[in-house]
Sequence to fold (477 residues):
Amino acid sequence: MLDWLSNSHITANVTIWVAAVGTLAIYSILYKENPVYRMAEHVFIGAATAYGVFVTWTQILKPQWWDKITHGEWYWMFALIAGSMFYFIYSKKHVWISRIIFGTLLGLIAGAAFKGFAGINIDRIYASFKPLHGAGMTPGDVANNGVFIVVLLAVMAYFFFSFEHRSRLTSAPSKLGRWFLMFAFGAMFGSTVMARMSLLIGRVYFLLHDWLGIAH
Amino acid sequence: MYLLLAVVIAGPLIWGLDLPILVSPAVRGVYDTVAKMPSDKLAIIVIYWGSGTTAENQPQVEGLMRQMMMQGKKFTVLAFDPQGSQFSYDSAKRISKELKKTYGKDWLHFGYRPPANLVPLQLSFPKNVIGAFETDINGTKLSEIPAMQGIKTIKDIGLIADTTSVGELDTWIAYVYGPYRTPIVYGPTAVIAPEGFNPLDAGQIKGMLTGMKGAAEYEHLLKCKGFATRAAGSLSSSHLLIILLIIAGNIGYVSSRRRRE
Fold:
């Protein structure tokens, strides 16, 4: 009865149809809130969660934990005990057990964060000291570095809160810094719009190319 | 308005709109860094995205895989998203079939790892690559895979290519680039691309593919007309529509305010 499932051509077609109907169901929210959208949303969330559980078991827990226990490395059982300790957060009486594992984890994370700080920031601080003259620098390089330095100082002036910006000497760079920040936010928002358009194009391309076969 | 947007996007996809593609220095940086990677080292393509951003991240990953396979660079894929793991595996299988490359010899896939394991892995794999990852996507021990022969520590890793829809780049810089100076190239979605400009300027990443636009530029360098190139016309036309709508909206706002006054 299920022989058709072994036919890759048919299953590919069924997959594309299911994906196309799912895409249209999700986009139906653009018209208004409706049961078809709700249904598709729940199916998507359920399917993604189930797939995540399946992959976690087949690619991580089974080969790297369960198989080791069943092949004699019994001490991997302690990972289950450590993992289970998190769930004691739901018990008023035994919440202290969860604090042990949370405390250990926070200590490890804090240690890693301290280590990471230098790795991230030292290069960036160093790179913010840009030369305005030097061998091999073109007028374009000088202009670029000049703009960088002006923007850097102005934005830092905006975030200087130790005293009120009353005099022109302090308020002018601060105002300039605010303008630069607005330009930056505008550019970031433009990038966000591009991202959203890209995702929409991806789905429209799927509908036109894979489903209807009319895109080139 | 949605219908107008759909038409503006669908038109170039159906009839084609080939606008010139200019390659930015950031994209050329990705290409050059991959090209310079020694062939005896292994590149790690990181997948930190799922079905929601395939339109942006998948063309980036396929471009990276294509260049590495064409230029004889070994690579593995490391996924922190279960869906992204399968998407990247399917892409690699398709491209390797096209370019006649072999799994296990020219490329491999480490499979999915939970996102919570990202930092512990970044701290552990530089000292023992096989010990940290253990098995590939099929459950085969890494020590038994030919492509992993001679790959022991971070010194044998030639490149990290981080493709992502979230902002975890800083952890790669903190725990891999910072202490070991392993080159990193970055493939973010356009939403988080602004976070990449600081590390790009500081030399912490060697190149960047900004969303679908970056992928289109990369395909142009690879002389391969993939999805991102086909979609570039639609991206430009949709941006033009939005610019026109912003101008029209502002004209309407100013004129209505004048009428009220």
